[in-house]
Amino acid sequence: MKKVQWNNPVIRWVDERLPVFSYMNAEYNEYPMPKNANYLWSFGGIAGFMLVAMIVTGVLLAMQYTPNVHMAFNSVERIMRDVNSGWLLRYLHANGASMFFIAVYVHMARGMYYGSYKAPRELLWILGVVIMLLMMATAFMGYVLPWGQMSFWGATVITNLFSALPIIGEHIVTWLWGGFSVDNPTLNRFFALHYLLPFVIFGVVILHVVALHEVGSNNPAGIDVKGPQDTVRFHPYMTSKDAFALTCFLIFYSYWVFFNPNALGHADNYIPANPLVTPTHIVPEWYFLPFYAILRSITFKFFWIVPAKLGGVICMFGSIALLALLPWLDTSKVKSARYRPIYKWFFWLLVIDLVGLTYVGGSPAEQPYILIGQICTAYYFLHFLVILPLLGKIEKPLPLPKSISEPVLGAKESA
Amino acid sequence: MMRALIKSAALAAFALGLGAASTGTAFASGTTEEPKQMQWSFEGPFGTYDKAAVQRGFQVYQGICQACHGLDHLHFRDLTDLGFTNDEVKVIAMEYEVTDGPDDEGKMFTRKALPADPIPNPFPNEKAAAYANGKAPPDLSLIAKAREDGPNYVHSLLTGYEEPPADVHLTGSQYYNKYFPGHVIAMPPPLASDGLVTYGDGTEATRGQMASDVANFLMWAAEPKLEARKQTGVKVIIFLVIFAGILYVTKRRVWRDVKH
Amino acid sequence: MAETTPTPGMDERHEEAHADGVTRREFIYLTAGAMGAVGAGSVIWPFINSMNPAADTLALASIDVNLAGIDVGQAITVTWRGKPVFIRHRTADEIAQADSVKLDDLPDPQPDSERVIKPDWLVMVGICTHLGCVPLGQKEGDNKGEFNGWFCPCHGSQYDTSGRIRKGPAPANLVVPPYEFLTDTTIRIG
């Protein structure tokens, strides 16, 4: 990191003892960004913004919320009705969760399309998978807090996943609950963890950014930066671009918050939790649907010995764990799908597969959805475990450009 | 670059379309009839409540629904949003009695309700409600949000009582309603005939009118901040669109001398 | 979004080439920065305001107090808005003491007549105006201080029979809440 000689004596005094200003300058002002990065590269920043927005609105909501089975539902209604701008805080937070997942999913899809997970960015990618897992845990526990019907039954079903584990399963579930069913101790600890985990996420995000800035950003060509002619300074180039992208994203976010705030939730969650009645259709939030579909697709004994319940749980967690292995499952040396004519198609096939899983996850557990779900689940694992390793050996990539500047300049001149 | 933008937008749209589709299918999979689609003044980005209809709906609630259903999340003071003055709200509240206490002797006592009090539930607790009705009637303060397509559902349910088809056999305390999931409902037709209330503003209290008014009222009860939300939203979106435009120009200027 | 303001000299090459474009360019940066600031400000205010008292807190009911059982020389403490309210049925002696004080002698001059509706009844919020402790003097046998009124044990403020500050660190008299007599023996506070 380059030390800067600051003119302001206070800044210089601090910087000589704790180089925060030099660090910020190096990482967010001078950081060289490949100049061919497209708007998909803005989604990392957007996701970071959403994390901060969720923490700010969440802390303010926590000041009004009561984590007690008798008061939780009413305290949320008090926020909606009596607290100044409470409805705004709650709708920003509830819809913000969906927006955060959209930003992160687009960010991940971009990484998969342009091969951003490949050497030397494997650890960067794995940290990203860790962030996604933490987000899922946080979002799940957050959805329990309003203590509506979906909160209660979502908590019951998801914690019961652990009962699939042989021998220790039941004990783990009782331990998670702090009782013999989802009840006040469960709600109380979920609140504590829901408040804690975002700060853990924040910490991992810092590691994620440090790892990124160590190896540098990937780019749509997927080739290495050859020199200063290939990059632009982060500020003002990327800041101005990201600010525009973020504002467009905020328009989208605002649509949901102000004009359709309950569309991404479930009507049943406006009914207070009732441990004696399960809602007819219990469905997780949309961002969990593909994984939920994988869970439900295992309706048979797995490898003839593993019971369906355990098999479903293994496949669901396995589908996420698989992502962490992606840098090694993809054997191609070429990063960007631009120069991988066959992989490009398989990428979009995977997207369609995930769309299918999402659709099945939101549908009732009956035919033909079960069969579609099983086909999509099988393809998901096929993509990562068979297609990607083989494709790297079979596929003949297109010729790569010599440098980032070369195709860029070439394109401009011919146009 | 523009292509990438479109791609990312398409991805986002994919994800969301799915969310919407999935909730839709969850509802459509039953055999229950879809509620009749009515026109509501609170729909759309500029929607506002029809205060007169909501006030009439409150009258229907007081006259009919309140015999069995609570409105636990509402307070008398909230009625000022409907155009009632503070003094009118005091008068409305004084028609109700609430339990308060304990007094100096440690005993509970009843007194006339005040604007700050919640609207009293017709039953002291859920067990009492279940005992009196066979099944506890649901609280109505959130019903318009706790059912898919709430306002239309409420309106359709209230006007959807029919003679049961030949293959459905009802016991004495059961009724047939094609909009109710499962069709067999324990609630007797609440709006069995016209003119169950006399509206102060001279509107004729037909069954359809009462059903529509009470649906308006219950939507307001479930989402009292809807007007503030939509009005804020219009301002926020206008601001963001202009801001995005300016940021786009800024970005173009910054990038002007970069060949890419 | 203050980062959209330009770094000085970030593209001097460009400024030389288009000297007339400079002001226009700076204008757009300024507009973007200003709009960002306005946008952030309009979001922050409702967030901060959410911590102010909510509608249910503001609407907290006033309380009615029956004075019939309080004999001359006795006092009761009731709760209003989560705070203790002292209600004292004063003796003729106490009223005389309160009236006889010269206003010039008081740190916070206020005649007794401004602090009561009926001289027999003194109603005030029982919270020391220094740092919020509850003064002694309501019970028989409490330390009432040098002026036969109330004495705050935290930092030694002393109040007289009208609840006015006489000695000690408190800056003002005990606060009289808004109240009215509904009947001769009932008051409504708030």
Give a written overview of the molecule:
- The complex is a heterotrimer of chains A (415), B (260) and C (190).
- Chain A contains 15 helices and two strands.
- Chain A has helices at 9-17, 20-28, 43-62, 72-81, 86-113, 122-144, 149-160, 169-177, 184-215, 234-259, 289-297, 308-329, 341-362, 369-394, 405-414; strands at residues 32-34, 231-233.
- In chain A, strands 1-2 form a two-stranded antiparallel sheet.
- The model of chain A has no long low-confidence stretch (mean pLDDT 94).
- In chain B, a hairpin with an 8-residue loop joins strand 1 (97-100) and strand 2 (109-112).
- Chain B has 260 residues and is mainly alpha-helical.
- Chain B has helices at 2-28, 51-63, 86-94, 126-133, 143-146, 150-159, 207-222, 226-254; strands at residues 97-100, 109-112, 161-162, 175-177, 184-185.
- In chain B, helix 2 (51-63) packs across helix 7 (207-222) and helix 6 packs antiparallel against helix 7.
- Chain C has four helices and nine strands, in the order αααβββαββββββ.
- Chain C has a three-stranded antiparallel sheet, with no helix packed on it. Chain C has a three-stranded antiparallel sheet with strand order 2-3-4, with no helix packed on it. A three-stranded antiparallel sheet of chain C has the order 5-6-7.
- Chain C starts with 11 loop residues before the first helix and ends with a strand.
- At the A-B interface, helix 4, helix 5, helix 10, helix 13 and helix 15 of A face helix 1 and helix 8 of B.
Uncertain spans of chain A, ≥5 residues at pLDDT below 50?
none
Largest interface comes to: A-B, 66 and 57 residues
Mean pLDDT of chain A: 94
Distance separating the two termini of chain A = 39 Å
How many DSSP-defined strands of chain A? 2
